[in-house]
What does this fold into?
Amino acid sequence: MRASLAPQVKGLSLRPLDPADLDAWYGYLSLPRVVRHTSWNLASIDDLRPVLERCNDAADAGSALRFAICAEPGGALIGTIGFRSVSVAHRTAELGYDLHPAHWGRGIATACVRTVIAWGFAERSLVRVQASALDSNDASIRVLEKCGFAREGLLRRYRMVRGEARDFWMYAAFPHE
It folds into this structure.
């Protein structure tokens, strides 16, 4: 697995996603309050399975690269973070993350975002990491801004969110900025 060297976050453990994480991941992504301000649209666990399978493909340097966030080494998944897409040619990636609501408000997302983008710049030689946030996702917007992402603009009707075209803010971070 290409992502075996996971970045280190103080007090947490990041590791490559594993098929055994699917139930826990779907467990909180099936909660309406978790997906309310995201573009996740999962009808069943079977909708999430191909997302997990596309992550960390050793044969594809441009595959999605996603880590399980664990409260302790070897522990159960409490969230995920990583790059939803990677462009090797352009050395860019799009950040994505989610967290079980039992762990919201503790600074976990902020710590993981800071660590993963620094790791992407240092270990993957990325020149840009971008992230989009649904215009109503105040919590994610705060995380991105605390982590030094700059708001670049509003992407009108950027993604379908449960059958409705919704607006997303585009953010970007760059090494040494």
Q: What stands out?
A: The longest helix spans residues 108-123.
